[in-house]
Amino acid sequence: MGNILIIDDDVQVCETIESLIARAGHGAVSAYNLKDGLSKVKSAEFDLVFLDISLPDGNGLDYLHQVKDSSGDPEVIILTGKGDADGAELAIQGGAWDFLVKPSSVKQITLSMRRALEFHNEKKNKAQCVALNLDNIVGKSTEIKMCYDLVAHASGSDANVLVNGETGTGKELFAQTIHENSKRSNNNFVVVDCASLTETLVESTLFGHKRGSFTGAQSDRKGLIPLADKGTLFLDEVGEMPLAVQKSFLRVLQERAYRPVGENREFKSDFRLIAATNRDLEAMVSRGDFRQDLLYRIQTIHIHLPPLRDREGDIRELTSFHLSRLSSQYGVPPKVASSDFYDVLDNYDWPGNVRQLFNVVEQAFVAAGSGNTIYAMHLSDALRIKLAKSNLKKKSRSDQDEAQQASAQRLETVSEKKDKRELNNNSVFNRAVSEILTEDLPPLKVFKGMAERKYLEELLLRHQGDTASILKISGLSRSHFYALLKKHGIND
Description:
Low-confidence stretches: none
CATH architecture of the largest domain: 3-Layer(aba) Sandwich
Strand content: 5-15%
CATH class of the largest domain: Alpha Beta
């Protein structure tokens, strides 16, 4: 029996889904706002959560990761009151199981619920059977933990995998981890540097050659593809592979067969393919720089590695891990990083990602010498200058944003005041005239004087004593204006 939570402010929707859940033999509980829903998620384990987007105290999508990362690791079905393509995209990217538009049919809700629970149970059973070895991968952020699920999925299958991410995010490390957790772990992990493949050498490099098959072939040579037999073939930077090479490799990938240069026979190689790139292959396909059929073949499972700047909290854990590793490597007592060292690291964008972080930490480790603590001063001058400039740019952008927000707020306030004045203009003068035109009408001369006083008071009120504006609006000279104030006993 599954345990299901519904977070939706529509009581009728909650009651309908509760009824469907009960009919299917599962347990259900409802929450009518985010606060209550998140409280329930923290206090109990759920297999499935129905999460509304539009709630009284926030947007459900903003809390999707928090719900998914709760102790029960539940599947999430997003509910929304209108068709929202962007919302659906965000929900799926965030790991939601399904995206339902209200009102959905009973059949659709029931089907989505049943499939989500089946998937959840299968995932739990698989997790219990397979203990994933992540010894060399460090990080507990939500972003990187989502990648762990995909690594587990890839490790349990023989499907082709595409790992993409910025330079230095650890693509080869993840590829090796998939290999080491797979049934092929006792065989070769063969790396092919696609950037170094040329049309003239590709066949010899990948397939091997026989002695005398071309000038310089003085002995038989085994290619990388036969070396990967029963193991894993890792295509590093597959986006750099020339188009002509892509065509040659596509057939090998389809048939798992190759012919060494100078050989008349074809041979089989039972390899598992993992490819990696820092480039946008779909954009390359649209430009004609990468074969679409090859892209389809290599991305049966797709793992996107987040940049370090998006992995909240992982910088400190990665730094601590690398310091420990460096202590063992150099054979010295453990070193720790000071708070000011971490402050500097936390405020940098790390364009080179984890690789750059490890290089920087090692430089500081060496600079610290025999000391047990690493301080910000142990960072190189060049890096500290770079960090300082980066922080100044951030501060400048932050100040600009604050100034723009303040300006927008001022404009909004002025606009509101203007709108308010325009709305009240008629009522102001109506009240003034009503006060003057009592049941007993005053003489015209008295009426003019009373209206003149009201006019002067309104001028002062609206323009807050700004004489220049008052004179411009009223058309009065300065001396005439002050004379009228004196005449009516009005203090400016």
